Amino acid sequence: MEEIKKLLESFIPIAKSTAKMFGSNCEVVIHDLTNPQASVMFTVNNHVTGREIGQSFDHLVKTVLQSKDFKEDYLAGYTFVTADLRTIRSSTSLIRDSKQKVIGAFCINFDVEALNQMQQFMNTFLSTHDEVQDNVKKSDNDIGNVEGIVDQLIQQIIQNSVHPVMKRHEKIELIRFMDEKGIFLMKGSVEKVASLLGISKVTVYSYLDEIKNKSS
User: Fold this and answer.
1) Do 98 and 22 touch, CB atoms closer than 8 A?
2) What is residue 138's predicted lDDT score, i.e. its pLDDT?
3) Would you call 89 helix, strand, or coil by DSSP?
């Protein structure tokens, strides 16, 4: 029994370095399977699952050993959910003695809840190529709606500002405002503004040139 204890304890530095490498969300547990009723003989970062020394194993038989992917004494990447509904991603490797008898298990439990939330955010934030294409098509279909909205903005802006004795500098300031708001990025906006202001399209362009020259 002392030999088994020393062999299992030899994995403690690996457990500590693994936990240190992957941070506080990574728990490492060493089981002594010669004492299955109280198999946990070492833990680090045990806040992840709450494993305590002296507890028994949980997933070894039902999840690990019965998995079709359990080969060569290990199973990597299986998951389970804690009582407080956090997803844990785990790996378990068996430990054998010199006679090839299974005496222990080396388990890594990683709390991936934060990563899951990040993945959900990234999936929402980043569109796939197909989704981008779909969005482009929808935007093309909505051009008429966008033009209608801009038309309403132009009419409202001018309606709020125009008066019978409107002076040249007032018209220039009104066009400056619309230029700053991106109104003239829309096709046909110059013609619409010119019509509503009662001036020519050429005059609107000259005002825009004047505005540009003054700002440069």
Assistant:
1) no
2) 43
3) strand
Tally of CA atoms within 13 A in the half-sphere of 186 that contains its CB: 23
pLDDT in tens, 162-197: 888 899 999 999 999 889 888 898 889 999 999 999
Measured CA to CA, the distance from residue 195 to residue 48 in angstroms comes to: 69
162 vs 201, higher pLDDT: 201
Higher pLDDT: 135 or 99? It is 99
Q: Domain 2-119 maps to which CATH number in 3.30.70.20, 3.40.50.880, 3.90.1210.10, 3.30.450.20? A: 3.30.450.20
What tokens does 133 get?
């294409």
Long-range contacts of 204-212 (CB under 8 A, 24+ apart): 204/175, 207/171, 207/172, 207/175, 208/175, 208/179, 208/184, 210/172, 211/172, 211/175, 211/176, 211/179
Query: 118-143 burial, b for 16+ CB within 10 Å, e for fewer?
Result: eeeeeeeeeeeeeeeeeeeeeeeeee
CA angle 138/144/149 to nearest 5° reads 110
| Contact by Cβ (8 Å): 7, 97 | yes
Q: What is the DSSP string of 110-146?
A: EE-HHHHHHHHHHHHHS--HHHHHHHHHHHHHTHHHH
